[in-house]
Amino acid sequence: MTAKALRNKVDYSQFPDRAGHFGRYGGRFVAETLMEALHELDDAWRAYRSDPEFLAELDLDLARYVGRPTPLYHAERWSRQLGGAQIYLKREDLNHTGAHKINNTVGQALLAKRMGKTRLIAETGAGQHGVASATVAARLGMECVVYMGSEDIHRQALNVYRMRLLGATVQPVTSGSRTLKDALNEAMRDWVTNVDRTFYMIGTVAGPHPYPVMVREFQAVIGREAREQMLADHGCLPDALVACVGGGSNAIGLFHPFLNDSEVAIYGVEAAGSGIATGRHAATLCAGRPGVLHGNRTYLLNDANGQITETHSVSAGLDYPGVGPEHAWLKDIGRVHYVAVTDDEALRGFHDLTRIEGIIPALESSHALAYVTQLAPTLRPDQRIVVNLSGRGDKDIYTVAKLEGIQL
Amino acid sequence: MNRITHRFQELRQAGRKALIPYITAGDPRPESTVPMLHALVKAGADLIELGVPFSDPMADGPVIQKACERALTHGMSLRGVLELVREFRQTDVETPLVLMGYLNPIESMGYAAFVAGARDAGVDGVLTVDLPPEEAAELAEPLEAAGIAPIFLLAPTSSAERIQRTARLARGYLYYVSLKGVTGSAALDVAEVANKLAEIRTLTDLPLGVGFGIKDPATAAAVAQVADAVVVGSTLVGKMGELADDPERMRREVGELVGAMRKAMDRPDQAEG
Which class for B159: exposed (0-12), middle (13-18), buried (19 or more C-beta within 10 A)? Predict the structure, then answer.
């Protein structure tokens, strides 16, 4: 069957299968020592994912603690300047803690509480997931340990201090490339050692099953809201969706409720860093190939011998050599188009939105914005693009200033 | 017959337990690996687990992580490991060799190419740490067809159902991870291990090896009382890291440590701490 025929027959809500497979991707590739913990998590997740009491508590937390629903904002001035489609920003930057990450940690924390776990651990790259984890741990009075590569600790001092203020222990990781992938390895090692009372909160739609589907469902509130908001305001669906993809949780959160709407074009934007041709990038889907890392089969950036390679992006949150397995599958069957923009293009997107709309976006989200500047002019003014503004840019002020030679 | 099965039969007839040292291939330098393998055999190894270095060894503690980094710095790769095995086999056709590592380098080479390469080089078993039985059929079947034993891990948390499922796919022996943690963790509890091994033995006839947390001759001897094989890794690899700049002393001291474990396992009443 051709990819097109396949994608027209697929009911996307039916994936993954019981063992976590999206086509040939996903699954559970971990040592036997973790299998029982994953089964325990999967059992709890399947029991609560449709439990009315659990969902009611989650909805209440999302409304009163996180601040949902987030607005769908029409960026009129920016749309006019680009001279094409109307651009709508899904304002995840307005969530408590400043990014979409909290949607997931609030959900996983409720699950951890019901499972009787007293200790939360997490990995973090830019620090956004770490802050979101430390936040829910503080609220529930749980111990929290966040693993963070020593390189990233250096780059993201502000978020490190936020986590410490919230009472979390930030554990520096000095193995391997000392970045997000190594923090994930170290968190897994902690989990396997302290499995009895510890809940591991993965921050993206990667890792062994059930993490990719569980995190997707916690993040899908983004797309469900956006869909309702478009229908309520305009009586129709958007023509296109755009989101940045590192691990891919904000993207899958926006995309998933629209996957069965074949008339909606969907674009995932990866980090091309200094340019894919330079080798200094994090464009896993655009330039990688399938392999197995961190518990799932997916696209990876690895060398000819299967060793994971170091990545580069101006945005620490996209600096990851893997990607969620559902994205790998959506790429192969052609439902989502994956593209990449460079550091420089992302920085232009950052400045454009700041100057034109008065919103300072995260550098991660700026990748999606940069692609919108290419896509919007190719569409008509009566067409609509929804772009996920996954986080606010306060955390990136120092990075941007430094790149421009300004000392704060 | 596969060399692993043959070796366990010999040992059983002799009333002895297998000593299985683990080293990481290419650590500290690629050229030190084959002489070290021969030194291990001379010191009393019955079977050797040869680690395939990986950039992201998720189930390993700091000692083996560093060994992987040392090996990768010097360009070691899965192809390079197969070359080392071929070289070892030129002078030793009896000692079973098991490759231990992670799935991605094998995926990257391709299952068919890997299985053919491993068979031609003289590999006897393959233990892929991050490949549980649920996902393993695609690799385990061609391995078995090539006469190579797919080796699997069991853990303290493995249920009876999982033990049976794993045993159906496994050949050679089963590797019981003695504690909750990564390689090189704190000492294991022999009584707990004995209880779990007794449960596993009601479900399979495969020989049972025990590893993770065996640091000295006394522990090796105690574990040998209840298991069919004792796997020692981080203690040896740590010593190799310390003595990386003096290859002869490294081989001598690692050999002495293996020899002391051998002696303690064979005469447990005279084990020293």
Answer: exposed
Average pLDDT over residues B55-74: 96
What range defines the domain where residue B69 resides? 3-270
Sheet containing strand A21-22, strands side by side: A21-22, A25-29, A295-300, A289-293
Residues on chain A touching B74 (C-beta within 8 angstroms): none
Q: First-to-last CA distance in chain B?
A: 38
Cα separation, A112 vs A118, whole angstroms: 8
Handedness of CA A228, A234, A238, A244 (dihedral sign): negative
- A14 CB neighbour count, 10 Å cutoff: 7
By Cβ distance, the residue of B54, B78, B153 closest to A32 is B153
CA atoms within 13 A on the CB side of A210: 19
Number of Cα atoms under 13 Å in the Cβ half of residue A27: 21
pLDDT tens track for A168-183: 999 999 988 888 999 9
Reading the block at residue B205, the tokens are: 């006839």
Strands (E), A294-401: 295-300, 337-342, 384-389
Q: Check A29 against B135: CB less than 8 A apart.
A: yes
CB pair distance less than 8 Å for A306 and B181: no
CA Rg, chain B, in Å? Answer: 17
- pLDDT at res. A1: 55
Contact (CB<8Å) B162/A185 = no
Greater confidence, B186 or B239? B239
Q: Could you tell me the CA-to-CA distances from A265 to A75, A92, A107, A384, A386 in Å, in that order?
A: 20, 21, 29, 11, 10
For chain B, say whether A193 makes contact (Cβ under 8 Å): yes
Best of B65, B83, B108, B129 to mutate (most A CBs within 10 Å, chain A): B108
What CA–CA distance (Å, rounded) separates B30 from A407?
A: 47
pLDDT the model gives residue B213: 86
Count of structural domains, chain B = 1
- Distance (Å) from the alpha carbon of B269 to chain A's nearest alpha carbon: 33
Q: Is B185 on the interface with A (CB under 8 A)?
A: yes
Task: Categorise residue B144: left if φ over 0, alpha if ψ from -120 to 50, beta otherwise.
Answer: alpha
Chain centroid offset of residue A337 CA: 17
* Stretch B127-137: mean pLDDT: 97
The answer to whether the beta carbons of residues A121 and A145 sit under 8 Å apart is: yes
Q: Nearest Cα to A88, choosing from A79, A99, A98, A100? A: A79
Residue A336 to residue A324: CA distance in whole angstroms: 13
- Asked if the Cβ–Cβ distance from A305 to B185 is below 8 Å, we say no
What pLDDT digit, counting tens, does each position of A48-99 carry?
Answer: 999 999 999 999 999 999 999 999 999 999 999 999 999 999 999 999 999 9
Residue of B nearest to A192 (CA): B181
Interfacial A residues in 50-89 facing B (CB < 8 Å):
none
3-class secondary structure, A136 = helix
* A388: phi then psi, degrees, rounded to nearest 5: -85, 110
B58–A290 CB contact, under 8 Å: no
Q: For residue A365, indicate whether it is catalytic.
A: no
- Residue B102, pLDDT > 90, answer yes
The domain that contains B126 carries what CATH number? 3.20.20.70
Q: Which residues of A241-277 are buried (b: 16+ CB within 10 A; e: fewer)?
A: bbbbbbbbbbbbbbbbbbbeeeebbbbbbbbbbeebe
Residue A214 is encoded by which pair of tokens? 């569980």
